[in-house]
Amino acid sequence: MQIDFSVTELIDALIYHWSFWEQHEDFYLKELLPKLIINPREGDEKESEIFAILCSKLNKVELETLPDLIKKRRSEYLLNKIKPKPLTSLTERLRQAEVERHRLETLERERQEALRLQEEEHERIKEEKQRLEDEARRNEFLPILRKALNDDFLNADLFFKENANGRISHKEYEEEKALFVQRWIKNFINSNLDLEQSAAIASVQDHIQVIARAGSGKTATIVNRALFLQKHCGVSPNEMLLLAFNNKAAKEIKERLEKSLEGNAPYVMTFHALAHSIVHPEETLLHNGSSENSQGLNRAVQQLIDGHLRIPEYKARIRELMMSHFREDWDRIVEGGFDKDRNEFLQFRRSLTRESLKGDYVKSFGEKIIANFLFEHDIPYIYERNHNWDNINYKPDFTIFKTDKSGLIIEYFGLVGDVEYDQMSQAKRDYWKKKPDWGFLEFTPEDIKTRGVDNFGTYLESCLKKHGISCMRLTEDEIWHRIERRSIDHFTRAVSNFIGRCRKLCLDSNGLDALILNYCEKLAVEDKFLKIISVLYKDYINRLKAAGQEDFDGLIQRAVEIVLNGTTIFERKSSRGDLSKLRFIFIDEFQDFTELFHRLISAIRKQNPSVGLFCVGDDWQAINGFAGSDLKFFNDFEDNYKPAQVLNISTNYRSSKSVVNIGNALMTGLGKFAVAKKTISGSILLADLSNFEPTLLEVERYPGDIITPVLLRLVGKALAKKDAAVVLLSRRNSVPWYVNYQGKAKSSEGLDRFLEYIRSFFPKDEHGRIAISTAHGYKGLERSTVIVLDAVARSYPLIHPDWIFTKILGENPQKITEDERRLFYVTLTRAIENVVIITERNAESPFLADIQRIEKLTSIRWSEFPPMSGHTTRLVVRIGNQGLKGVAPTFALKDTLKASGYQWQNTRWQCWEKSFPAKDFNIEILKKEVWASKADGIEVRIFNDSDSLMDRYTVNIAQWVKVSSK
Fold first, then answer.
1. Is the pLDDT of residue 371 over 80?
2. How many C-beta atoms lie closer than 10 Å to residue 107's C-beta?
């Protein structure tokens, strides 16, 4: 703060400071004063302070008159008999000024606060007055609006626009509409809807897209909207068309409508049924249904391929293609065309499946070379057979048996250089060195790189021969004979899928040829496929015409042409309608929209521009890209259909909080989250097979099989809850773990066989509570507990090498990965209450890492999932120490214990284990074993096959004392 002093104040202070005027006046005025004027620093502190200010305030002339001014001022003091005042210090003046400033500011703040309070009060009074006026106007308008909603709901938007005049906001209007619908549905349909569902039903203008998360009641929303439009809004049933994607969904919607409408329901059908009712084809229709007896399209493709297989030229080309496909280095192919950074490629490569000639899905090209060599040389092997290593789940890459308990292990160490991996590799080497009945071979990528694929085969052969494994290479004809059926099935699926994709893209044979001609990125295997498919696709189209047949996609294409040409009548046995008279079209599962469906809807809108669309779907459940669905129609809704609104129904009524949360975590950043309605928390458990410690009986009962005892525990625990049911979900129609079926009859294949096997361990009346399915096949269904069988990198995401065949149609690894994420979401959200996710350390699905960045997954505690109880057929005897007495007592017995068939267990209670038949077992059997006579300071525990303690003994100097019993 700037402090100012007057000249008079400064002269007074100087006179006060020079206190000896009678004695030193001449000195002050004639000697000291001139010096200080020239240089204020010549004086003491006070003099310097005063003259520094004076010199800044007076010019040179004024300073020369300073002695006269001092004399005059001193004369005034003497005349008036008063004393001069000292100069207040600068610090004190500042303090005083600050106090004054603060006082003035406080006064100003108080004044401003008083003004603010006065203004606020004024504004409050004004707002209150306005609120009362608005409330009065609103209350005056609401009955009028509600009457309009009741009398003419379809035109309520126009009524609001013309009459609201600011009496209620647009948001309040939309809320009022939703509340009206909610009350109406409750009163007339006796159904409870939330406000999001009600708001979707209330939106009857524009084209409406509803994003409906899993379990949010999308079918209820569709059905109730149709009921509301018909029963309240007066829309005729023949003015509404509800389109579903499959017969099951169409049947459910129709049954629910007819129940409420007593048979007078709107049109409900699939897209294909609509096309049929427009075209009325005379041809036989080919399609693939859900049952084995309704696979007409696949049979037609199979017959087409069978015909070409009878032609030597094409049989040779198909054989060459499939042999190359199973032998190709997909790592090299994909890396060469991968447009992402190295880390993303490595993540992708973990998810790339590599199918061997035998049909194993191996982890790397190196493993594929070894697997193919063994197959080509007729050497039986098991890939990744479970091996119990001190209760650690260990899966050697290749196991070649010589006898039941001897053979050769082959490991392919693909990550040499990683410290933890190298340590584990060394542990494996050390382990097999201690197994005299087992040989051990190891290979690395360097072995293949330095030798080349062909020379590596020679090297592998020499290594096998050293271990007594003879190598007699099969001829190419013999190899083909062994894989021909599987290869043709494989090829048929690829061809059928490709043809279906072309048909859904409205691509004729000439269009496909042009696409192939202009396609410059063909790989060797891809080129072989495209040359064959070009011929097959043309023959397929011609075959349809010649045989008087049509497929569903062709049927829709013809329907589009008919509608575009002006014909709008559609007719079925039970009904007849006119597309030009429709006012509303409902579309279920809109996320699965295809180019064909889009063209059909566009053709209808061309003939009927005023028809309103109501499209309901969930982009998080778009899992049918492999079948030609394209999410672009869902994402571009507002651009394709104008004017448009996008609404959400996000409350999940199906699942527990934990299930909803894990789904949200997986899909973070990809849209609005779902909200759990249920208050139960449920559970999400992560079951790492690497941490599973089977009991001795489980090891004996399911040799080499880790998944069966795991699932028996999980399923048994799930079924312990009354009325609970469990479903096992797998990415493929197979179990990705070795299963020892123990010679049981094989009445079915794939997942059905595994389900039959698992059910065989449970009472027949519980079989219906145990289900199994692929993830795709279980969409739309639910069970209280879901067990995800394969949350590993080669299942989620599953990037099958067959994607290369549809690369020309736009398929790519990134798109597949996005589809696979959505499929994993569908898998998880089938659960009502609990999810168990089975995975394996170092092979986890990358989706699990994405989830755990948001939601921490709880690892399963196997002690809470004991082996399933049942009739005790075997007992387990465990022998350990009572306590340490110098050298551990059992150590002295180890040779005799081993000789008696006991095995050392280094986990839980460290002990020796052996199992016995339960029948006729008694303690005397143990006392007669060779180790018993030397036993001292040990404890013997006897368990049943559920791992429950039955009896317990202490043995001191061969004296047995029963401590406790069951």
1. yes
2. 10
Give CA separation, 201 vs 127, 190, 208, 490, 711, in Å.
35, 16, 10, 46, 44
Question: What's the pLDDT band for 964 if we cut at 50, 70, 90?
Answer: low
> 661 — phi, psi (to 5°)?
-65, -40
- Round to whole Å and give the CA distance between 903 and 388: 12
Nearest to 216 by CA among 664, 653, 615: 653
Q: How far apart are the first and last CA of the chain?
A: 92
Residue 140 predicted with pLDDT over 60: yes
What DSSP state is assigned to residue 295? B
pLDDT tens figures, 892-949: 888 889 888 888 877 667 888 888 888 888 899 999 999 998 888 899 998 887 777 8
Look up residue 557 and give its amino acid. Answer: Q
Q: 669 lies in a domain?
A: no
CA 731 to chain centre: 14
Per DSSP (E only), the strands in 341-423 are 354-355, 361-362, 382-383, 387-389, 392-394, 398-403, 406-412
Residue 377 near residue 471 (C-beta atoms within 8 A): yes
Q: Is 343 domain-assigned?
A: no
Q: Are 805 and 537 in contact (CB under 8 A)?
A: no
Domain match, 791 and 907 both: no
Residue 180, φ and ψ in degrees, nearest 5: -60, -45
Q: Rounded to an integer, what is the distance from CA 958 to the centroid of its chain?
A: 60
886 pLDDT exceeds 70?
A: no
Spatial separation of the C-alpha atoms in residues 138 and 132, rounded to whole Å:
9
Type of residue at 891: F
Point out which residues pair with 383 in neighbouring strands.
398
Residue-wise pLDDT for 463-491, tens only, equals 999 999 999 999 988 988 898 888 888 88
What is the C-alpha separation between 726 and 714, in angstroms, rounded?
9
Specify the CATH number for the domain of residue 586.
3.40.50.300
Amino acid at site 961: V
770-774 and 726-730 beta bridge pairing: parallel
C-alpha 533, offset from chain centre: 35
**Together in a domain, 181 and 251:** yes
Q: Within a domain: residue 334?
A: no
Give the whole-number percent of the chain exceeding pLDDT 90: 51
Give pLDDT tens digits for 816-832: 999 999 999 999 999 99
pLDDT band at 52 (very low <50, low <70, confident <90, very high): confident
Q: What is the CATH number of the domain that holds 884?
A: 3.30.70
Pairwise CA distance, residues 519 & 521, whole Å: 6
Rounded Cα distance between 89 and 632, Å, is 81
pLDDT tens readout for residues 550-585: 899 999 999 999 999 999 999 988 889 999 999 999
What is the SS3 assignment for 713? helix
Structure tokens at 398: 């290749």
Q: How far apart are CA 674 and CA 651, in angstroms?
A: 6
Cβ 744 vs Cβ 760: under 8 Å: yes
The structure tokens listed for 37 are 């004027």
DSSP H helical segments within 355-444, as ranges?
365-376, 419-433
Confidence (pLDDT) at 218: 94
Give Cα 308 to chain centroid, integer Å: 43
Question: Please, what sign has the CA dihedral across residues 470, 473, 478, 484?
Answer: positive
Side chain identity, residue 289: G
pTM of the model: 0.78
Domain boundary among 864, 885, 906: 864
